[in-house]
Amino acid sequence: MNQVSGVGVSAGRVVGTVLKMAPPVSAPPEGERLADGADAAAEAARIKEAAGVVKAKLQERAAAATGDSKKVLEATAMMAADPALTKDAAKRVTDAGSSPARAVWDAAEKVADMLKSLGGYMAERANDIYDVRNRIVAELRGEQPPGVPTSTTPFVLVAVDLAPADTATLDPALVQALVTSEGGPQSHTAILARQLGLPAIVAAHGADQIAEGAEVFVDGAAGTVTLEVGDTERQYAATWAERAANPSVFNGVGKLADGFSVPLLANIGNAKDAKKAAAANAEGVGLFRTEFLFLDQADEPPVDVQVKQYADVFAEFPGKKVVIRTLDAGADKPLPFVTDDTEPNPALGVRGYRTSWHYPDVLTNQLTAIARAADASEADVWVMAPMIATAAESADFAKQCTDAGIKRPGIMIEIPAAALTADRLLTDATFASIGTNDLTQYTMAADRQLGSLAELNDPWQPGLLALVKASVDGATVAGSHVEVDPATVDADHRGDPVRPIGVCGEAAGDPALAVVLVGLGVSTLSMTPRSLANVAEILASVTKEDARRIARIALDAPSAAEAKAGVRAEIPLLEELGL
């Protein structure tokens, strides 16, 4: 075996020595019971003590961490002492005679099963429970808990997958790259790798067979780990290291080689994100995820509170476009005041715009708050609703926006039905943004959190690209029926699509895929600020006609892998830069 392949989720090329995560804690034998003569009460008490030790260790790590890492560690520490887990486990010892380790194992499985049944974001939290379970069992046994290995020299971390508490403590100065045999492109590991700018590959089946201490070449863009490192690989790594030491900076103007404008926007969740996006010279905001402001709220925030939250974001982009998405509650982002935690399949349930069917005041209040904040700011505020499926829903949302005083109502295209009927949905809505994360999983019937479905859940799938084209074609048809007074359009925007389509999913941050999206007719691309410079550099190397030709290659490909390979072959700069 000379090479292991997986799904590349963060670009970068490095040569490094492999260090592997400790193997997972082994499950106690099923039905394992207390030893003869053991004091059940005393053994049960050990569970609470072990959980307390785990909590203290996590809190100690949290105290030394900052930002998101600190929050993850603090949240995991709270889980370690969750009475729902420890009390259930203790009861299994005193009432059924289970061994403490087995009791913790079974109690954690019960909690994890409950979270999995909720789907999406809550299902992903099951991994946190397993992490806590493993740590408590290791403490009970006197074993070393699993975690990131310690090292004084840089290394490539290879693991089955990483728990949030592990990823939160990664030191980018030491960890050169991440390779996991499980996990998907939207897993916590993948998201963190992108944020840190670490080369990363997930779903790399066979990575667990790589020997500890082996020297490897990791190519994050290609999704490959090469086990025999030669001069070529070392040169690639050296070139990437030089680029990383002197990163390119986005100049704030996205355009193609022939001058065709492609505004590059940022995805954000709060005012802190907005500041980072503005500092990265984003041309605006293509996705403001408002639900992230309220995930820890038990009740609907008052209108005045919402106005302040939105205004803080708008203030960072005077004169620039800010696309704000109304609450995308439900599925992986449940909010107690609008979602039902008993739904059997939340991803296909009452989420996004659909929550307004049962809680209309929540949407009305949010639109009121957005309108008030927009009126008091200099930002060009556009508002879109998630999970729109029909023309009637689109028309209803557009009317609610108009009634609230919002001038640019739009929709998210995340459902195949919306892509296929975009001409009708954009009769009343004035723009659309394609959420490729959800549109991919719904198109391919593949849960985006499952590493086992990573190959299906790939935005390079020709089926997904066909739906992007269908959306753009539908928007063109809808726009042809709209009368526009040229006198009302400023010179900089004459010739812009009447019904523009943007992309705000993870696909927009892939430089190669960005070329395809532009070639399909997408007007704007929105991404994590870290991706702006790389996307801009690749787009500036092709003309509009190049992009159209390259997009056709991807559309005509029989598979996602062949689509990606065919496109990359047409853009040699990608290989040259390691993107």
Structural class from helices and strands?
A: alpha/beta
Q: What integer value in Å does the Rg equal?
A: 25 Å
- Strands of the biggest beta sheet: in what spatial order? 1-8-7-3-4-5-6-2
Using DSSP, what is the number of strands?
A: 16
- Helical percentage: 40-55%
Please state the overall shape, judged from the principal axes of the Cα atoms.
globular
> Which stretches of 5+ consecutive residues score pLDDT under 50?
none
Mean pLDDT: 90
The profile of the biggest β sheet is: 8 strands, mixed
First-last Cα distance:
25 Å
**DSSP strand (E) fraction?**
5-15%
| Number of helical stretches of at least 4 residues | 22
Describe the structure.
It is a single chain. The chain is of the alpha/beta class. It contains 22 helices and 16 strands. The strands form two sheets. An eight-stranded mixed beta sheet has the order 1-8-7-3-4-5-6-2. Strands 9-10-11-12-13-14-15-16 form an eight-stranded parallel beta barrel, surrounded by five helices. Strand 9, helix 10 and strand 10 form a beta-alpha-beta unit. Helix 11 packs across helix 12. It is globular. The model has no long low-confidence stretch (mean pLDDT 90).
